[in-house]
Amino acid sequence: MTYTHHAKRPTAAQREAQKAFREADAKVATSEYERNQAAFHANRERLKAERLAREAAATGNVAHKQKRSVGEARRDFADRSRLGK
């Protein structure tokens, strides 16, 4: 048995319609991609700003705690040496 099916070629009007739909689909996909990228970058920048603010606050707090703990250590050492412990 031989296979004798031939595919029908699209007419000129069908080719133009396919081309128009293909271009429209490409524009929609591109604009959707661009919107997603813009949202991603905006979110990343927001998270980066929050992280930098947290790190700055933590660094400030750590420096403050270190200064306080050094003073407390000196007082504790003075107390211990005075009590003979």
Beta-strand content bin: under 5%
Anisotropy-based shape: rod-shaped
Distance between the termini: 106 Å
What is the subunit organization of this protein? single chain
Q: How much is the average pLDDT?
A: 80
The biggest sheet amounts to:
none
Low-confidence segments: none
Strand segment count:
0
Using only C-alpha atoms, the radius of gyration works out to 36 Å
Secondary-structure element sequence?
Answer: H
- Total of DSSP H or I helical runs spanning 4+ residues: 1
Helix/strand class? mainly alpha
Describe this structure in words.
The chain is mostly helical and 85 residues long. Helices cover 85% and strands 0% of the residues. The protein is built from 1 helix and no strands. The chain has one helix at 12-83. The radius of gyration is 36 Å and the shape is rod-shaped. The protein starts with 11 loop residues before the first helix and ends with a helix.
List descriptors:
about 80 residues, mainly alpha, 1 helix, about 85% helix, about 0% strand, rod-shaped
Brief account:
The protein has one helix at 12-83. It has 85 residues and is mainly alpha-helical.
Describe how the helices and strands are arranged.
Blueprint: H1 12-83
